[in-house]
Design goal:
8 helices; globular; 6 strands; about 260 residues; about 10% strand; binds zinc ion; alpha/beta; Rossmann fold
C-alpha cells in the first residue's frame, strides 16, 4: 500500500509537505509521556511505542507522522506508578490540552483535514478528547466543517487472539500492564538496545483501593514502579503484537475515512 513517500513530517522539506496536501493525507500525531517504566525500560517508552507503530501504520496508508509529543499528563499510581518517580516529567492538563489544540489547529491551517491522535499513555486520554473537541469547535468557528479527528490508544487494538499469546494465563488489566508484559515485549522486539533484560521485574500485581487518595498514598505502589510482573515478556510476543495491531489499525483508519 505504501507509495514510497516519506512518512515523517519532520524529515520533509516544506515543499515536500506541500506537495502531499492535494492528496488529503491522514496525519498521525503520536502522544506519549516521559514516565518511569520500571528498572528495565526507558522513560520514553510511552513515546517510542506509539511513534514506531504510527510510522508502520502510516507506511501502509500513505499517511504522515507528525513529531511525537513526548510529554503527557501526570502519571497516576493505578496506571503508571505515580508522578513521584525520578525522571517522570509531566504536564498539567491545561498545558497538554492547549498544546494539542494548537497543533491540531495549525495542521488544519495548512489544509490537513484527517488527523489521528495516537495515544501511548493511558493518562492522556480525556485530555486528548478535550483538545479534539475544542479544536473542532475552533475550526467550525473559522468556517471549516470538514475536519475529522480520530483518537485511539494502540493497545486497544490488541485482539483476543494476541491477548492469548501475550497472557496465556489471562490478562489482569490493561491499567496494571504498565511496564509489564506487553510494553516490555514490544520494546524487546523494537528496541532491544534500550531494554535492561537483566532487570525485568517479577512479582504479584499491585493491589489498590477503589478510591484515589490525593496526595498519593505510596504504600500500594511497587517500589520498582512496575504494576504487574513483566517476567514473561519476550521479543516474539512483541513481534506478534505488531504483526496484528499495525494492519488492524491501518484497516480501521482506511475504513473510517473511506466511509
Ligand atoms: Zn507505558
Amino acid at each position: 500500500m505504501s507509495d514510497g513517500a516519506a512518512v515523517r513530517l519532520a524529515d520533509m522539506t516544506w515543499m515536500e509537505f506541500a506537495e502531499r496536501l492535494p492528496s488529503n493525507p491522514i496525519v498521525l500525531l503520536p502522544i506519549g509521556s516521559t514516565e518511569q517504566h520500571g528498572p528495565h525500560l526507558p522513560l520514553a517508552t510511552d513515546a517510542i511505542l506509539p511513534e514506531e507503530i504510527a510510522l508502520r501504520v502510516a507506511e501502509r496508508i500513505g499517511g504522515i507522522v507528525a513529531p511525537t509529543l513526548s510529554y503527557g499528563y501526570k502519571s497516576q499510581p493505578k496506571t503508571g506508578g505515580g508522578n513521584h518517580f525520578p525522571g517522570t516529567i509531566s504536564l498539567d492538563a491545561s498545558t497538554l490540552i492547549a498544546l494539542m489544540r494548537d497543533i491540531i489547529n495549525d495542521l488544519c491551517r495548512h489544509g490537513i483535514r484527517r488527523i489521528v491522535l495516537f495515544d501511548g499513555h493511558m493518562e492522556n486520554q480525556w485530555f486528548i478528547t478535550e483538545a479534539a473537541d475544542l479544536a473542532i469547535r475552533d475550526q467550525r468557528r473559522e468556517g471549516v466543517n470538514d475536519v475529522t479527528i480520530l483518537k485511539l490508544g494502540y493497545w486497544e487494538f490488541i485482539s483476543a487472539q494476541t491477548e492469548e499469546i501475550l497472557f496465556p494465563d489471562g490478562l489482569i488489566s490493561w491499567a496494571l500492564e504498565h511496564a509489564a508484559v506487553m510494553e516490555t515485549s514490544v520494546m524487546l522486539h523494537l528496541r532491544p538496545d534500550l531494554v535492561r533484560a537483566d532487570r525485568i521485574p517479577d512479582g504479584p500485581p499491585a493491589a489498590f483501593p477503589l478510591f484515589d487518595p490525593y496526595p498519593f498514598d505510596l504504600r500500594p505502589i511497587p517500589a520498582h514502579g512496575v504494576l504487574s510482573s513483566a517476567a514473561s515478556a519476550t521479543a516474539e510476543k512483541g513481534r506478534a503484537v505488531l504483526a496484528q495491531v499495525v494492519p488492524d489499525i491501518a484497516r480501521a483508519l482506511q475504513d473510517h475515512f473511506a466511509a
